[in-house]
Write a structure and sequence with these properties.
CATH architecture of the largest domain in chain B: 3-Layer(aba) Sandwich
Helix content of chain B: 40-55%
Strand order of the largest sheet of chain B: 3-2-4-5-7-6-12
Number of strands of chain B: 26
Radius of gyration of chain B: 30 Å
Distance between the termini of chain A: 74 Å
CATH class of the largest domain in chain B: Alpha Beta
CATH superfamily of the domain at 12-214 in chain A: Pyruvate-ferredoxin oxidoreductase, PFOR, domain III
Radius of gyration of chain A: 29 Å
Number of domains of chain B: 4
Number of helices of chain A: 22
Oligomer: heterodimer
Largest interface: A-B, 123 and 121 residues
Strand order of the largest sheet of chain A: 2-3-1-4-5-6
Strand content of chain B: 15-25%
Largest sheet of chain A: 6 strands, mixed
Strand content of chain A: 5-15%
CATH architecture of the domain at 12-214 in chain A: 3-Layer(aba) Sandwich
Order of helices and strands of chain A: EHEEEHEHHEHHHHHHHHHHEHHEHHHHHH
CATH superfamily of the largest domain in chain B: Thiamin diphosphate (ThDP)-binding fold, Pyr/PP domains
Amino acid sequence: MSEQGKASETPVRILITALGGQGGGTLMNWLVSAARASGYRVQATSVPGVAQRTGSTSYYLEVAGSNYEGVFNLVPMPARVDVVVCSELMEAARVIEAGLVSPELTTLIASDHRVYSTAEKIDLADGRFDVESIAHAAHRLSRHCHLLDLQKVAGDHGTYISATLFGAVAASGALPWDISASRSVLAGGAQSASIDGFDAAAALLTKGDAPAEADAQPAATTLEQLIAYATAELIEYQDDAYAELYHTRLSSICTLDSVSGEIKEEVARRLANWMMYEDIPRVADLKTRRERYAQIKQECGLQPGQTVRITEYLKPRAEEIADMLPVKMAQRILRRVESGKSLPLLGKGRRIPSNSAWGYWMLRGTAAMKKFRRRSYRFQQEQSEIESWITALQTCVTGSEKFALALASLPRLRKGYSDTLQRGVAAYDSIFQSMVTVALKNKEFDAAAQVLQDSIKAALADDQHVKLTESIVQFRSKASLQMSSTLQET
Amino acid sequence: MERSFAREIESLRLGEGEEFFGEGILAVTKALLQSGVSYVGGYQGAPISHLIDVMVQAAPQMSELGIHVEPCTNEASAAAMLGASIMYPVRGAVTWKSIVGTNVAADALSNLSSPGVIGGALIVIGEDYGEGASVIQERTHAYAMKSAIWLMDPRPDLETIVKCTEQAFELSEASNTPVMMELRIRACHVQGSFTAKDNIAPDISMQHLMENPAPHNYMQLSHPPVTFSQEKQKYEQRMPAAREFIQRAGLNEWVAGQHDNVGIVVQGGVHNALMRALAELNLVNTDGAPDIPLLILNVVYPLVPDEIVGFAKDKQAILIVEEGQPEYIEHEVGSILRRAAVDIKLAGKDLLPMAGEYRSEVLLDGVVAFTTAYLPTAGNLLASNDYPAEVAALKQQAGRLLQRAVPPRPPGFCTGCPERPFFAALKMTEKQIGKVHYSADIGCHSFATFAPFNFGNSILGFGMSLASNAGVKSFQAKRPLAVMGDGGFWHNGLLSGVTSRLMNGGDGVLVIMKNGYTSATGTQELISSPDVQLKKASEEKSATHGESTIEDALKGVGVKWLRTVHTYKVDKMRKTLLDAFQSPFSGLKVIVAEGECQLERQRRIRPIRAKALKNGKRVVRTRFGVDESTCTGDHSCMRLSGCPTLTLKTSDNPLKTDPVAHVTNECVGCGLCGEVAHAATLCPSFWRAEIVSNPNWWDRFIARCNRWLTGGVVA
């Protein structure tokens, strides 16, 4: 190998960030091998620590010609990194945030798939980081930017993301040696899948990343499509008349010209979800649909010749049984529950083999009980609450768009099952009974809109309702109203 | 063990003149072999875990040379091991993570350093400081000073690290003093090369036994009255001998530079970061040498006054670059200069931050301040350097474009980790009885301090959780809880926690996570690790199930209330916890939460399954999933789990705005999702699929029947 470079040149600085277990160390070792095979001096280091388990990790390399006499640094300097490779999109955001990606210098190569962090996952609504702002920042702040779904490429070729990241960085032109030197590192190994992944990623990068970004955007659903979808589901849920009721309720809001599309859409969505509240027959029905079995098999990657047993984890309590029964019977059971007793055979977890004949027909039988739904206790309860909500919407919809929109989204809080549902309903009730009732009475919608919006946010901030209680206490002290505390009971 | 070093171990055999390429820790191991050590030991922990792993895996090769390898149960036992060098001319080396390991080893270190050593004694310190560190940010330097143990801090390149390792033994023998060599995290993991030498088989070793033990010599006991004379020896004989050796061997490096009216004294370990800062400021010439003279301290304790005075005396100002607090070196240099009446400006922590890692960008600010004041010709140019402004602008712009702070991504429990279900059970228990004081400990279970569990009122050290809530329990209405791992239990939890509590007849609840290994440091073996037979017999089941060393020890010391519960029995765990908190029994209640480390279990299962599949045998794989249609997107399940494979997905249903739960195909089917759905009465959305490969005739028959009897719906 001929001698390369000057004694005092600046080394090529490469930063890899990954999640523990993604093979960032493997990628680093491949780059080291390629550099050495091409006659370069190289130093690499990492901070694996305990972060090997799912946490953020980083690896740093410096590469210089054989004549280089300066020292190699062990830590990347902000704005002084030539190549940044990220195994996940939010990890790219983390590097960008730290100032390590520079518009003058940096070639940024990142897989644009997402692995959600715990902080994003535990949100009661949607805590996901905005991927568009990451892509925007990545393009704006780097010299060359390649965002590609390298996780998918790896999956398609039966290999790991380390191989596809390697292919992409090797093809990017940012390394001082050519792609064949990188590729031959893998050629020595026994894994032909790694080479396939490497080649596919290299080809994808060379082709350009625009198409991959384009199909990440699903087409927006129009209001008409939304209503059509809801109508079909409502007929499945109950019957034609029930779907008709949906349209009647919807038109009492949506036929007014002054109502914005945003409100219409929100009402159409929340009303449909609410009217299709999840009771036992509904769950049994959804679990025994033909397309659901197909979906499970696809998710499991079931191969021809394999068989599968599917088990459901159901735990109906007396409360859910009461929900299905006529009002009087339900009230009797609920009184029993309140006094600390339950019903025989309930409150225990049941494992139902839902793709066995008996499991399937048992669930179908349960689903068929939707016939009695209209007479059930919960149906009465839900319909009366829906009516109150619709009435409230009708009152305010012409008064304040902002308030109406917040009120339209309020049923978002009513979701989940058992304790989760109770918490959501309690939040809904306390907001409705305090803020909404007062606003309706005083006709002061504009002032109340922000408060309502904030308290919905507060209700979704934590599952102990700490924030919501604060916000309601604040509201009450402001309005100096004496109201019975429904929230404290939760 | 988590990582195999089979390939790397081969490089330990390299001989004279061959090029070694590899990781820093491995280079140190090679240097130990080149130094003729008779024994090595240590206790694992990042960043030196790999050193232990390499030694254990290389034990057969090392025994060929006669070297004894001992993975110790804690750092105190590792430090005490060096006591062999007090009486015998044998070289020994041990390693651990600092500052915590040095704290644990402190008693043995005092007793080792007071009499001093005959054979070279080296402690390789993983200085867990700065980014990626997992312990309290303190300096090992303090121990070096208080016990008079010499401390090396080599430049982070393999040539220097290897040279310092070898010379550490010579220094130790020349001055009859143990030597510590600190390597920061990135230096431990740095990959580079050096020219190897032949390994040396020690003269006295397990291959060459001594017929007789050393004669009784009271002067070598750290026991009064000789401790008083030993204290004098440290400073009257050993330290001058050390200084003489350091100078003679040229361990510290004096690099000349054109601006010789100023100079920088730098710890070897920080040298490279400083050089890069100087390069950014154009203070490095075309040969890659600095324009400002440097004194690089590869030995940071003791300092050699002649070297310091020689470097400083004709200058106007020197800057001490010393990472961490407090500024021990700066103080010592100050004393040296005052005693020698060298009246120059001494700069250091007045221009550089007291705390935190000295990365290049931090050093750059300090160097600019220093040169602006004392090197006006160059400094005024540097002051206009716009690097800090460039970085600030870049970060600001990034923050604006990203719109919100990037959420943290701390390490967490692995997919299928058996500790996760315990914390789900505890969360449910607290829902029933309210919060209890939770004394946390060190180990994988300390990931429960992060979201979604957020447990822990205090962490007091490895194996200290039970001991740490002895005071707390005296004023808590509810019984406090202490959680520790089996690693912590054996490290010192049994003695400082359990026996102390029993002796005092104290109340309290202790949970021991019995996963079978010290998992957080890379699944090293414990005294209670399941043995090979047990692992073989357990096949795919948890191998810790049949292992009872912990329970036997607890019974042996007199624990009366003891329950072992498999962690995946979430409801049973919840009831056992309730019982522990509410039982009328007033003594110590211990719950052994059993469940084998999933990393180790999967490592065993994978080859078994692969072989069975290849042979056409029936293999069942279990995984969980979530029904998108019934999931309402509240994510309660994630707040009770935090499993990496339980994640989010945009719903295909246009009526749903919140993302629904989704289980990825990496699910190992641990069963927690189903258990939690039941125990917490969560929701009906979870399903379990048992996928049968190579199904037998019965599987196929049943599948066919089910298909036929459901009109093909379940097909």
